[in-house]
Amino acid sequence: MMGDPARIGIDIRVSWRGGVCFPDETGEYKERAVFKVFTFGDNWILDRATSCEISVDDGRGKVTAIDSNEYRRLMVKRNLLSWTLDIPIEREDGWMTAECYERVKNVPAPLMEAFLDEFESSATVSRKEEEKITRQSIVLFGRNSRGVADACEAVSMFCTLGNFWEKFGIGKRVSITDMPFREYMMLKMMVGKENEAIKPTTSPRKPLTKIAGAGGRPRASQGIVMEG
User: Fold this and answer.
1) Where residue 35 falls among pLDDT bands split at 50, 70, 90?
2) From CA 71, how far away is CA 92, in angstroms rounded?
Protein backbone atom coordinates (compact mmCIF):
# COMPACT_ATOMS: atom_id res chain seq x y z
CA MET A 1 0.00 0.00 0.00
CA MET A 2 2.99 2.29 0.57
CA GLY A 3 3.55 2.14 -3.17
CA ASP A 4 -0.01 3.17 -4.03
CA PRO A 5 -0.33 6.98 -4.09
CA ALA A 6 -4.10 6.67 -4.55
CA ARG A 7 -4.59 5.23 -1.05
CA ILE A 8 -3.85 6.40 2.47
CA GLY A 9 -3.80 4.29 5.63
CA ILE A 10 -4.96 5.72 8.95
CA ASP A 11 -3.93 4.02 12.21
CA ILE A 12 -5.80 4.75 15.44
CA ARG A 13 -4.83 3.46 18.87
CA VAL A 14 -7.85 1.96 20.61
CA SER A 15 -9.13 0.26 23.73
CA TRP A 16 -11.99 -2.20 24.01
CA ARG A 17 -14.58 -1.60 26.71
CA GLY A 18 -17.41 -4.05 27.12
CA GLY A 19 -16.89 -5.33 23.60
CA VAL A 20 -16.94 -1.79 22.12
CA CYS A 21 -13.92 -0.18 20.43
CA PHE A 22 -12.98 3.39 21.36
CA PRO A 23 -10.02 5.60 20.35
CA ASP A 24 -7.42 5.76 23.11
CA GLU A 25 -3.98 7.38 22.67
CA THR A 26 -2.53 4.99 25.25
CA GLY A 27 -4.47 1.98 24.01
CA GLU A 28 -2.82 -1.39 23.63
CA TYR A 29 -4.31 -2.09 20.20
CA LYS A 30 -4.51 -0.39 16.82
CA GLU A 31 -7.21 -0.33 14.19
CA ARG A 32 -6.47 0.70 10.60
CA ALA A 33 -8.68 2.19 7.91
CA VAL A 34 -7.64 2.57 4.27
CA PHE A 35 -9.13 5.46 2.32
CA LYS A 36 -8.97 6.48 -1.32
CA VAL A 37 -6.97 9.71 -1.47
CA PHE A 38 -9.37 12.65 -1.38
CA THR A 39 -9.36 14.45 -4.73
CA PHE A 40 -10.61 17.73 -6.14
CA GLY A 41 -13.32 15.71 -7.88
CA ASP A 42 -14.43 14.13 -4.61
CA ASN A 43 -14.71 17.55 -2.98
CA TRP A 44 -16.68 18.90 -5.96
CA ILE A 45 -19.16 16.00 -5.78
CA LEU A 46 -19.59 16.25 -2.01
CA ASP A 47 -19.89 20.04 -2.10
CA ARG A 48 -22.71 19.84 -4.63
CA ALA A 49 -24.49 17.11 -2.68
CA THR A 50 -24.36 18.94 0.67
CA SER A 51 -24.79 22.60 -0.34
CA CYS A 52 -27.96 24.42 0.58
CA GLU A 53 -29.17 28.01 0.70
CA ILE A 54 -29.96 29.52 4.08
CA SER A 55 -31.42 32.87 5.02
CA VAL A 56 -29.31 35.22 7.16
CA ASP A 57 -30.27 38.39 8.99
CA ASP A 58 -27.21 40.49 8.11
CA GLY A 59 -28.59 41.97 4.91
CA ARG A 60 -27.16 39.39 2.54
CA GLY A 61 -30.47 37.55 2.14
CA LYS A 62 -29.55 33.96 1.31
CA VAL A 63 -26.09 32.42 1.35
CA THR A 64 -24.81 28.98 0.38
CA ALA A 65 -23.74 26.75 3.25
CA ILE A 66 -22.34 23.22 3.55
CA ASP A 67 -23.94 20.60 5.80
CA SER A 68 -20.66 19.45 7.37
CA ASN A 69 -22.19 16.39 9.07
CA GLU A 70 -23.64 15.12 5.79
CA TYR A 71 -20.36 15.96 4.06
CA ARG A 72 -18.47 13.66 6.43
CA ARG A 73 -21.03 10.90 6.03
CA LEU A 74 -20.62 11.06 2.28
CA MET A 75 -16.85 11.12 2.70
CA VAL A 76 -17.12 7.71 4.39
CA LYS A 77 -19.31 6.37 1.60
CA ARG A 78 -17.06 7.81 -1.10
CA ASN A 79 -13.56 7.18 0.21
CA LEU A 80 -13.46 4.37 2.79
CA LEU A 81 -12.05 1.27 1.08
CA SER A 82 -11.28 -1.19 3.87
CA TRP A 83 -10.39 -1.50 7.54
CA THR A 84 -9.42 -3.97 10.25
CA LEU A 85 -12.82 -3.86 11.94
CA ASP A 86 -15.00 -6.94 11.48
CA ILE A 87 -17.42 -5.14 9.14
CA PRO A 88 -16.48 -5.84 5.51
CA ILE A 89 -16.57 -2.82 3.19
CA GLU A 90 -18.62 -3.39 0.06
CA ARG A 91 -18.46 -0.88 -2.80
CA GLU A 92 -20.18 -0.42 -6.13
CA ASP A 93 -19.68 2.24 -8.83
CA GLY A 94 -17.23 4.19 -6.68
CA TRP A 95 -19.42 4.30 -3.55
CA MET A 96 -20.06 2.18 -0.50
CA THR A 97 -23.26 0.20 -0.95
CA ALA A 98 -26.33 1.28 1.02
CA GLU A 99 -26.48 -2.11 2.77
CA CYS A 100 -22.84 -1.81 3.83
CA TYR A 101 -23.30 1.72 5.17
CA GLU A 102 -26.20 0.55 7.33
CA ARG A 103 -23.67 -1.67 9.12
CA VAL A 104 -20.82 0.85 9.08
CA LYS A 105 -22.88 3.60 10.71
CA ASN A 106 -23.20 1.44 13.84
CA VAL A 107 -19.47 1.77 14.52
CA PRO A 108 -18.97 3.84 17.72
CA ALA A 109 -19.08 7.51 16.78
CA PRO A 110 -15.81 8.45 18.57
CA LEU A 111 -13.87 5.86 16.57
CA MET A 112 -15.38 6.91 13.26
CA GLU A 113 -14.73 10.58 14.09
CA ALA A 114 -11.09 9.76 14.88
CA PHE A 115 -10.63 8.06 11.51
CA LEU A 116 -12.29 10.95 9.67
CA ASP A 117 -10.36 13.65 11.55
CA GLU A 118 -7.06 12.04 10.53
CA PHE A 119 -8.24 11.53 6.96
CA GLU A 120 -9.38 15.14 6.60
CA SER A 121 -6.03 16.32 7.99
CA SER A 122 -4.27 14.38 5.23
CA ALA A 123 -6.32 16.23 2.61
CA THR A 124 -5.86 19.80 3.82
CA VAL A 125 -3.08 22.34 4.31
CA SER A 126 -2.37 23.11 7.96
CA ARG A 127 -1.93 26.62 9.33
CA LYS A 128 1.76 25.89 9.96
CA GLU A 129 2.21 24.72 6.37
CA GLU A 130 0.44 27.80 5.03
CA GLU A 131 2.70 30.07 7.05
CA LYS A 132 5.76 28.33 5.57
CA ILE A 133 4.32 28.64 2.06
CA THR A 134 3.82 32.36 2.62
CA ARG A 135 7.40 32.88 3.89
CA GLN A 136 8.99 30.88 1.07
CA SER A 137 6.79 32.50 -1.58
CA ILE A 138 8.08 35.92 -0.57
CA VAL A 139 11.61 34.66 -1.23
CA LEU A 140 10.71 32.75 -4.41
CA PHE A 141 8.83 35.60 -6.06
CA GLY A 142 11.07 38.35 -4.76
CA ARG A 143 13.09 40.55 -7.11
CA ASN A 144 16.40 38.88 -8.12
CA SER A 145 15.33 35.66 -6.44
CA ARG A 146 17.72 32.73 -6.74
CA GLY A 147 15.18 30.22 -5.54
CA VAL A 148 14.37 28.76 -2.13
CA ALA A 149 16.63 26.55 -0.07
CA ASP A 150 14.96 23.52 1.51
CA ALA A 151 11.72 24.23 -0.36
CA CYS A 152 8.47 23.01 1.18
CA GLU A 153 6.19 20.61 -0.67
CA ALA A 154 4.07 23.35 -2.24
CA VAL A 155 7.00 25.43 -3.53
CA SER A 156 8.82 22.34 -4.80
CA MET A 157 5.74 21.07 -6.63
CA PHE A 158 4.98 24.51 -8.13
CA CYS A 159 8.53 24.90 -9.46
CA THR A 160 8.81 21.33 -10.72
CA LEU A 161 5.55 21.40 -12.62
CA GLY A 162 6.38 24.85 -14.01
CA ASN A 163 9.80 23.71 -15.20
CA PHE A 164 8.41 20.61 -16.88
CA TRP A 165 5.90 22.78 -18.73
CA GLU A 166 8.54 25.26 -19.88
CA LYS A 167 11.16 22.69 -20.90
CA PHE A 168 9.10 19.78 -22.19
CA GLY A 169 5.59 21.10 -22.78
CA ILE A 170 4.28 18.75 -20.12
CA GLY A 171 1.47 20.55 -18.40
CA LYS A 172 -1.09 17.88 -17.57
CA ARG A 173 0.14 15.46 -14.94
CA VAL A 174 -3.41 14.49 -14.08
CA SER A 175 -6.78 16.06 -14.77
CA ILE A 176 -7.87 18.49 -12.08
CA THR A 177 -10.70 16.12 -11.16
CA ASP A 178 -8.20 13.42 -10.19
CA MET A 179 -5.74 15.75 -8.48
CA PRO A 180 -5.37 15.17 -4.72
CA PHE A 181 -7.29 17.96 -2.98
CA ARG A 182 -4.29 18.83 -0.82
CA GLU A 183 -2.10 19.36 -3.91
CA TYR A 184 -4.84 21.44 -5.53
CA MET A 185 -4.98 23.70 -2.48
CA MET A 186 -1.19 24.08 -2.43
CA LEU A 187 -0.97 24.99 -6.11
CA LYS A 188 -3.91 27.38 -5.74
CA MET A 189 -2.05 29.13 -2.90
CA MET A 190 1.14 29.32 -4.94
CA VAL A 191 -0.63 30.86 -7.94
CA GLY A 192 -2.20 33.40 -5.59
CA LYS A 193 1.20 34.25 -4.08
CA GLU A 194 2.69 34.67 -7.55
CA ASN A 195 -0.13 37.00 -8.55
CA GLU A 196 0.39 39.04 -5.38
CA ALA A 197 4.10 39.38 -6.11
CA ILE A 198 3.63 40.90 -9.56
CA LYS A 199 1.23 43.61 -8.38
CA PRO A 200 2.58 47.09 -7.50
CA THR A 201 4.56 46.97 -4.27
CA THR A 202 3.25 50.38 -3.22
CA SER A 203 -0.32 49.15 -3.00
CA PRO A 204 -1.85 48.70 0.46
CA ARG A 205 -2.13 45.23 1.90
CA LYS A 206 -4.90 43.63 3.85
CA PRO A 207 -5.19 40.16 5.38
CA LEU A 208 -7.10 37.42 3.66
CA THR A 209 -10.02 36.64 5.91
CA LYS A 210 -10.86 33.03 5.09
CA ILE A 211 -9.71 29.98 3.18
CA ALA A 212 -11.90 26.94 2.70
CA GLY A 213 -10.77 23.36 3.11
CA ALA A 214 -12.50 20.06 2.57
CA GLY A 215 -16.15 20.35 3.49
CA GLY A 216 -16.20 24.10 2.95
CA ARG A 217 -15.20 24.85 6.53
CA PRO A 218 -13.40 28.21 6.44
CA ARG A 219 -10.53 29.30 8.65
CA ALA A 220 -8.42 32.43 8.91
CA SER A 221 -5.65 32.63 6.34
CA GLN A 222 -2.09 33.74 7.04
CA GLY A 223 -1.68 35.05 3.50
CA ILE A 224 -2.05 38.60 2.20
CA VAL A 225 -3.59 40.14 -0.87
CA MET A 226 -2.16 43.10 -2.74
CA GLU A 227 -4.75 45.65 -3.75
CA GLY A 228 -4.22 47.43 -7.06
Assistant:
1) very high
2) 19
Does residue 145 have a pLDDT over 90?
Answer: no
d(C-alpha 219, C-alpha 59), whole Å:
22
DSSP 185-202: HHHHHHHHHHHHHTS-TT
* pLDDT band per the 50, 70, 90 thresholds, residue 223: very low
Distances from the Cα of 42 to the Cα of 38, 99, 123, angstroms = 6, 22, 11
What is the model's pTM? 0.74
- Whole-angstrom Cα distance, residue 16 to residue 21? 5
Per 3-state DSSP, the chain is made up of helix, strand and coil in percentages (nearest 5) of: 45, 25, 35
DSSP symbols for 29-49: EEEEEEEEPPBHHHHHHHHHH
Tell me the average pLDDT across 122-143.
87
pLDDT at 115 over 50: yes
Contacts of 221 (CB under 8 A, 6+ apart): 130, 207, 208, 209, 210, 211
Cα 49 to Cα 45, 46, 70: the distances in Å are 6, 5, 9
Domain boundaries, the chain: 7-122, 127-226
